[in-house]
Amino acid sequence: MRRCPGGRSWRRAAWRLRCFRFVKIDCYSIETNIQIFAVCASVARRCGYPNRPDRGGGPMNFSARGLSAMFSVLRQRNFAIYTSGSTVSLIGTWMQRVTVGWLCWELTGSGAWLGLLAFADMFPSVIVGPLAGAAADRWDRLRIARISQMLGLLQATFLFVALVAGFLTIELLFAVVLFHGVVEAFNQPSRLALIHSLVGRERLGAAVAINSIAFNLARFVGPAIAGVLIATVGVAWAFALNAMTFGAFALALAAVSLVRDDALAPRSGFLREIVDGFAYSVRHPGIGPILMLMIAAGVGGRAVVELLPGFAADVFGAGPIGLAALTSSVAVGAILGGFVVGVRQSYTGLTRTVIVSVFGIALAVAAFTVTDTLYLGAAALAVAGFFMVTTGVGSQTLVQLAVDGSMRGRVLSLHGLIFRGGPALGALLMGVSSEFAGLRLPVAVGAAILAICAFFALTRVNAIADALENEPRN
């Protein structure tokens, strides 16, 4: 869209000034994020991470030996190839997510459209997820992942062509985002279940944590790259680069072979298998409550990430660079959260860690809504990102440990459904409400409701922990 203008010298000078301002602001955001990382480390220690078994934090080891033990899982060839390709693809995905949000705001200036696009991106998990979970328990999970990457490549290429050709409208953008949301929804259960198939139960916690660190590293790098591209060569090239990252992951998946896998579920019809998986999750004394808490966290807390374009433009007045800084700040805290969970030496106390972390999300999001200073908002989001990851990685690890192997795909499809559908629903509700009440009030109300849910879960923490931490499965 925007190109470096030619012609008159004053235009060239204005463009150079704009680029200088971008570099200056971006360096400031890097310095800010370094300071935020220290804040998150302090928060981790105050909340009982690490080395506070008395608080249910579980023993952890942040020494070089502890970190080496965590990353030793990357010595397994298949997991290393998978993680490398996945990280590249995730960087592209976050580039596109930020670019789509900014493009939507430029086209409409509407919080409702931001919410609708987030809804289209993530809510298909609610419809497609259960079917995809049954498919993951029946079919070749690796093949499903490969096909999904090729479809992702096609949609990113289409966005690039449509934008360059000048026929991309907000309605067409919504349709493409919805298509990609359906593809990701079908892919997610297979992608999550592949981790167990690649490393087995013994290294599961470290593998899930590394996968989360890669996701949040991409959340940091992707928006930064998107900000550079939007400010220099234009929005379209962010879509083009994303298409290349999908291709890179497809090549990586072609080189992966599974070492171990769960037994396939007995075939009894897709509908029956979906119902069986849902019933199993609801009746399980640990999986059911933890999934309900994840719904509350997605709708009431994590939805704020989908509304950051509106906050960057209207609340902070910071433009695309401010959006990149806010999104990257979430990633800074999230990366530290991934390390905190990954170096655990035991799964004991992980349930309490997850529930306390949900409280942390609520408090950090509430703090974010009461400031109009970019620096303070970024700090609050970094703390929120830390707790989002300790919640997400911890809950996924607990579910993977407790679930029966023949139900893994279907139960993880519900986890993925909640992970994507919860923020989508929350962003839709908050985005529509923002048309009448502004962005801050709906987000603050969601944080308050989330805190209440976390308090209720904490009153049942021992029963939930007994079902999740003391019930080994295949």
CATH level-two architecture: Up-down Bundle
User: Secondary-structure element sequence?
Assistant: HHHHHHHHHHHHHHHHHH
> What is the CATH H-level superfamily?
MFS general substrate transporter like domains
Shape, principal axes of CA atoms = globular
Q: Tell me how many strands there are.
A: 0
Largest sheet: none
% residues in beta strands:
under 5%
- Overall mean pLDDT score? 77
Radius of gyration: 21 Å
- How many DSSP helices? 18
Oligomer: single chain
Indicate the low-confidence ranges by residue numbers: 1-62
**CATH uppermost class:** Mainly Alpha
Fold and architecture overview:
This protein has 474 residues and is mainly alpha-helical. It has a single domain (28-469), classed as MFS general substrate transporter like domains (Growth Hormone, Chain: A, Up-down Bundle). It has 18 helices and no strands. Helix 5 packs antiparallel against helix 16 (408-437). The radius of gyration is 21 Å and the shape is globular. The termini are far apart.
